[in-house]
């Protein structure tokens, strides 16, 4: 039963992760016009400097900016996964899996109500830090399956 719960949580999690990808251009366009926090302008300035240093044409600015936001998410996932794994060794896999899924759900909820760019970035940060559930799911599957059926469960 647990392997179906893990599979379903990963499917929902990865679907939620990919939903944002086609929306990035429209989101960036919206926040470029409606951000009052100044974070968008600050990040755009940094991306523009990086873009000019690499000699990338200006028409690819939104692509590079979206890549920076996507990379932030992935970097935080990379950094949080070992910590999630270590905590799951101490407190157990199920509590940490539930905690990371709650974190991912919270990031989607924050994103849904984000009215400013800084809140949107906060949602991406929460989501990236909570994404240790993917590597944790591998550990759960390893724990619950025996060696002969482990390959099929992965």
Could you give the topology of this structure?
Blueprint: H1 2-19, H2 24-34, H3 39-54, H4 61-91, H5 93-112, H6 117-130, H7 133-144, H8 150-153
Helix pairs in contact: 1-7, 3-4, 4-5, 4-6, 4-7, 5-6, 5-7
Characterise this structure:
The protein is an all-alpha fold and 154 residues long. 82% of the residues lie in helices and 0% in strands. The chain has helices spanning 2-19, 24-34, 39-54, 61-91, 93-112, 117-130, 133-144, 150-153. Helix 1 runs antiparallel to helix 7 (133-144), helix 4 crosses helix 6 (117-130) and helix 5 (93-112) runs antiparallel to helix 6. It is elongated and about 55 Å long. The two termini are 15 Å apart. The mean pLDDT is 85.
Key structural traits:
154 residues; 0% strand
- Strand percentage lies at under 5%
> What's the alpha carbon Rg, rounded to whole Å?
18 Å
* Discrete helix count: 8
Task: Tell the overall outline.
Answer: elongated
What string gives the helices and strands in order? HHHHHHHH
The structure class reads mainly alpha
Helicity range: over 70%
Q: What is the number of beta strands?
A: 0
Low-confidence stretches: none
Compute the average pLDDT.
85
**Measured distance between first and last alpha carbons:** 15 Å
Profile the largest sheet: none
Short description:
The protein has helices at residues 2-19, 24-34, 39-54, 61-91, 93-112, 117-130, 133-144, 150-153.
């Amino acid at each position: 039963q647990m392997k179906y719960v893990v599979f379903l949580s990963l499917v929902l999690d990865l679907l939620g992760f990919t939903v944002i990808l086609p929306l990035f251009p429209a989101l960036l366009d919206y926040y470029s016009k409606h951000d009052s926090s100044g974070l968008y302008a600050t990040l755009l300035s940094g991306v523009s400097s990086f873009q000019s240093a690499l000699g990338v044409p200006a028409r690819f600015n939104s692509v590079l900016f979206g890549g920076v936001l996507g990379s932030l998410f992935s970097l935080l996932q990379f950094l949080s996964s070992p910590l999630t794994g270590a905590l799951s060794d101490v407190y157990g896999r199920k509590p940490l899996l539930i905690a990371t899924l709650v974190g991912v759900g919270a990031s989607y909820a924050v994103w849904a109500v984000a009215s400013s760019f800084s809140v949107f970035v906060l949602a991406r940060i929460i989501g990236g830090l909570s994404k240790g559930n993917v590597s944790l799911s591998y550990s759960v599957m390893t724990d619950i399956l025996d060696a002969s059926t482990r390959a099929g469960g992965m």
